């Protein structure tokens, strides 16, 4: 593809994303100020169509981007500098007073509101840390163990008392866990509890029963996907997405990892995936490593998604999550 063809493709994709109308040569020249004749532009558009980057619209003489054209644009050409967004995120990360997960939640909410994009953040329980654990007795037979995770999620687990698991012993265990297990990964809690057996044994008579109760019922976390959605109304309003496809997208962003749903391979260095689908939907997913955890940020929308805005948001999030300014 020549440099001029690249420029024309970029203009066509951005024009179509903006107004949803097939793009003709005269419209392109008028809106962009190109110093080219209509014939030259038509010839270049014909070449782009022949190479699979454009498609001819049935309702007019204009062209629209093909899946190949969208993918090329989203991968290589989509760039934007939204100062309002950049300044907002800089402010959010500069005044960070809480965990990175809560800060990320605030930042992604701001992106969705400013850019009008549907965003999904995904994590697994394996990535979350235990930040707090509290015991709240319900009656003489059971109590609630409340655990707050690093993402701000609250988990409530029931523990039952019997001849071997007594409320006073559970209190001692919870106090010990507060001292020794805060900031432990949820998935590692069972192993860490087992390792505390020598300390528990010197304070609790039936320490084996206490360990079994916590490992089996309280600290029984698994590596399930935990999704948070932002700006879903923007997705629902996209009239170009058919109802069935919209339902499938909503199921995806609710229950699954967008990263895993994208069939294309990721660049090893960029850890970025982009998929433009034939059903007029698009997915962008990025994995960002922060300390020992991995954050998955995904943008979901129609083929007319603002790819430039999404990629700028990803760039800014990665920079600020890794301590940039």
How would you characterize this protein structure?
- By secondary structure, the chain is α+β, with helices and mostly antiparallel strands.
- The chain has helices at residues 3-19, 25-32, 38-50, 67-77, 83-94, 100-115, 167-180, 189-195, 197-201, 207-218, 232-236, 243-255, 258-261, 307-321, and strands at residues 54-56, 63-65, 118-124, 130-137, 142-149, 154-160, 225-230, 272-276, 281-290, 293-302.
- It folds into three domains: 3-77, Orthogonal Bundle (Arc Repressor Mutant, subunit A), CATH 1.10.10.10; 83-117 and 231-321, GAF domain (Beta-Lactamase, 2-Layer Sandwich); 128-218, Enolase-like, domain 1, CATH 3.30.390.
- Helices cover 47% and strands 21% of the residues.
- It has a five-stranded antiparallel sheet, sandwiched between helices. It has a three-stranded antiparallel sheet with strand order 4-5-6, with helices on one face.
What's the short story on this structure?
By secondary structure, this protein is α+β, with helices and mostly antiparallel strands. It contains 14 helices and ten strands.
Q: What descriptors fit this protein?
A:
single chain, 325 residues, alpha+beta, Arc Repressor Mutant, subunit A, Beta-Lactamase, Enolase-like, domain 1, 5-stranded antiparallel beta sheet, 3-stranded antiparallel beta sheet, 47% helix, elongated
